[in-house]
Amino acid sequence: MNRFKIPFGFGCKTIDDICSDNNVDCSTFLAVSNIISNRKYNGFSIHLPTLVSYLKEAHSYILDYMLPAIKDILIKGVHSHNSNDVALLVLKFFDSYMVEVRNHMQFEDEFVFTYIDGLLKGELNPEFRISDFATKHNSMASKLNELKDIFLQHYCLPNTRDLNQALFNIISCGEDLISHCEIENRLLVPAVEDLERGVRSSKINCGGDTSHAEISSTDHREESLSEREKDIIRLVAYGLSNKEIADRLCLSFHTITTYRKNLSYKLNIHSTAALVIYAILHRIVNMEDIRTLFVIMHYC
């Protein structure tokens, strides 16, 4: 509620009344709440200004409150028992992570959200599409998990209240970052893609620049695939698991699962079998290679 700027003290009012009193789009509020609660989020219309405002507040909370709070308690928890070089490396690791998250969120604040504001005004940037953002987007939570595992499995320190609180905050922040990423991937990106299509269509009807507007939705999807995404589709078609793909491409397992998720949303393809067909039809893989692979697997 804080990120929607809804104050406490709402009594027995309905969700619709609370949203109306605070100028919050109720459908967007419900979609976000359902994703966070692991409930069905489909069927809700998304009001982009409301969603962008929510995401900006989330960025501010994570950057200005959650991460600094973790650092403060980490300093207390680590230095109270062990001021050696390992402790300094742990703090340096977290400092570099904070910079990485800040850069990631500042890019969204200053570029992606500005791009969306332009679209809402009917302005189209021919150099950028929201799919460019989606293909490179991840939750930023993997390094927090690494830090948690360092403490739990490798770094022998007394289980003090400070260290226990630090680990709790790290886990909580990681979960927040993951749900935040899900909201952007599942709600923001599809809503912006719809808006992009509407703006392009409007420009066609008005006789404006049609160099991008004339691309059909299917062609747009295929054209917007990066070489890395094609590599992943190719390896999926060859029967490799996400872990095997991660090892082959020297990427993390989490990165590959994020790519797979984004590909599902971008192509509207949610099964491996359908992805193989797509890869064949778009000549990402050769049909003969797939047929040979099938024969080998059959006889094995």
Commentary on this structure:
- With 300 residues, the protein is mainly α.
- It has two domains: 42-205; 225-299, Winged helix-like DNA-binding domain superfamily/Winged helix DNA-binding domain (Arc Repressor Mutant, subunit A, Orthogonal Bundle).
- The protein is 71% helix and 0% strand.
- The protein is built from 13 helices and no strands.
- It has helices at residues 15-21, 26-36, 48-79, 85-120, 130-134, 142-154, 161-205, 217-223, 227-237, 242-249, 253-267, 272-281, 287-299.
- Helix 3 (48-79) runs antiparallel to helix 7, helix 6 packs antiparallel against helix 7 (161-205) and helix 10 (242-249) crosses helix 11 (253-267).
- The radius of gyration is 23 Å and the shape is globular.
Q: Key features?
A:
2 domains; Arc Repressor Mutant, subunit A; about 300 residues
Task: Tell me the β content.
Answer: under 5%
Task: Tally the helices.
Answer: 13
Alpha-beta content class = mainly alpha
Q: Choose one word for the global shape.
A: globular
Helix content: over 70%
Give the SSE order as H and E letters.
HHHHHHHHHHHHH
How far apart the termini lie comes to 55 Å
Total individual domains: 2
Main beta sheet? none
- Tell me the total number of β-strands: 0
Sequence stretches where pLDDT stays below 50 over 5 or more residues: 208-223, 295-300
* Rg over C-alpha atoms, rounded to the nearest angstrom: 23 Å
Mean pLDDT: 82
How do you describe this structure in short?
The protein is mainly α.
